[in-house]
Amino acid sequence: MKIAVCVSHVPDTATRVKISSDQKSIDSNGVTYVLNPYDEFAIEEALKLKEKNEGTPEVILLSVGGDANKETIRKALAMGADSAVLLKDDNPRDSAGIAKALSEEIKSLGCEVVFFGKQSVDYDNSITGQLTAEMLGYNCVSVVVSLNIDENKVTAETEIEGGREVVETELPVVITAQKGLNQPRYASLKGIMAAKKKTIEEKTAASYENLTEVSSMLMPPPKQPGRIIGTDSSAVPELVRLLREEAKVI
Amino acid sequence: MANKVLVVLEQREKIIKKSGFEALTVAVGLAKQFNTEVEAVIAGGEISNLADVGKYGVSKITHLKSFEFENYSSSGYNDSISDYAKEVNAEFIILPNTAMGKDLAPRLAVRLNAGCIMDSIDYEIKNGEVTLTRPVYAGKALIKVKFKSQIKVFTIRPNVFKAIKNDSGSPSDISVREVTSPNLKTRVTSFKKSDGKLDVAEAEIIVSGGRGLKGPENFHLIEELADSLGAAVGASRAVVDAGWRPHREQVGQTGKTVSPSLYIACGISGAIQHLAGMSTSKFIVAINKDKDAPIFNAADYGIAGDVFEIVPKLTEEIKKLKS
What we know:
The structure holds 2 protein chains of 2 kinds.
Chain A: E1 2-6, E2 9-11, E3 33-35, H1 37-52, E4 58-65, H2 69-78, E5 83-88, H3 95-109, E6 113-117, H4 128-136, E7 139-150, E8 153-160, E9 163-170, E10 173-177, H5 189-197, E11 200-204, E12 212-218, E13 227-230, H6 236-246
Parallel strand pairs in A: 1-4, 1-6, 4-5, 5-11, 6-10, 7-10
Antiparallel strand pairs in A: 2-3, 7-8, 8-9
Helix pairs in contact in A: 2-5, 3-4
Chain B: E1 4-8, E2 11-12, E3 15-16, H1 18-34, E4 38-44, E5 60-65, H2 74-87, E6 90-96, H3 99-112, E7 115-120, E8 122-126, E9 129-136, E10 141-147, E11 152-156, E12 173-178, E13 187-193, E14 205-209, H4 220-229, E15 232-235, H5 237-241, E16 262-266, H6 272-278, E17 283-287, H7 295-298, E18 301-303, H8 307-322
Parallel strand pairs in B: 1-4, 1-6, 4-5, 5-12, 6-11, 7-11, 14-15, 14-16, 16-17, 17-18
Antiparallel strand pairs in B: 2-3, 8-9, 9-10
Helix pairs in contact in B: 2-3, 4-8
């Protein structure tokens, strides 16, 4: 059995966003890029599955993008993944374009279990996993907080409004990981050293024509500065009055 | 005449969810500008309020019915709904950006060879083209996105578009289609409700607590204020990572992005990731000891004081008001 983990290279969540001169993307000057936080849960789950099966499955990282992604792929390899493929395309792709590249590679590798983070914290679409599954004809469970794979049978819990759903399906499957699924491990020194020696295979991403197009990026409208109406509980009646009469929200 | 606008509604426990009516309102607005028709489709078992769709200006609804559809099945819903969208020649397919909408929209898009745009908060139509606005980087920036595909799937963020009643006077045309042997390759077998509390993603009012509460034992102050307002309880990342509160309550870039009408932040300093997740709330109240905390820049009203003194007093005043 082969396991794929699809990872993305995103600005750190502490980034203060500035818009670049093309008015369509962020200015990446001075921005620190990291492994997408949700992908850490995806990698951890893949490694746990490998360990449960006494190390037989191979854990393969897949990423779509340019050379800059290699830094993130190395970090992910250091956690313990076996190998990595970078599907190269320097042009921006929409989610379906990324899914197209990934699904073609997953098909040729023959991976039966595919993990994603539930969303990338840049474009926040939360759809690449489902798109990839649908293109492959695989089953898929998204936003997973608990997972059990027993031979062919998959049981997962997924987070929805007001609770959790228990979902049953079978392999082959795509799982998108939510925070809480596990506690991602830190890369060990040994892992970091080993990752340096692993090769990142580079391939041209399967061709694709975008179905959506960003026409512009803009900052959210600035907010009127708020009012500090007091420093102790004597301000509470005034706060309640404002919420009731001015904001009309209670 | 352009092709149809199709709204995919969602039911939980036999009732159509409110976010679906918001999607109907968007669909009615869109159809008016394109001079086309809107219809709704829903998968489910028994549904008690199908006729409500008529109150929002959409008279035609098709219920894809199976007792197996009481709970969500990604494979079954996708098969039945994508077939229906093809049958009626839908050009636009609109869903609310709920857990189900997020799961189903991309699958429908693949089946229909459509572009898929998620979590829209605004739309405009120019020269016969729709442009959607959506937050990126958890709301730190916005993008305007267009479709290049003939068929277009998009989701709208709950609580942003107001559901507008529009009694066009036409009688409701409800058709029920029995779905025999749905595709249940992937199916929900049970639902575990989280202790009867409201969910931050859907709440009109959220009361959130942060590290200023000093420990999990003090969160009852937040819960009591939330109860008095009929609000959901939220939390900052710091207190979730510390294990004081469950992750489902986390608001922010690695938690939930929310847009309630009122957000009350108690003892939250306002890290950039938190601000990103809640700054689209209509009104924001901050209660924090440190008057220089960034949360006050995002807030409409603030009290720069002790949460342990102010929060109970606020609960008391709200209770007085409601009694």
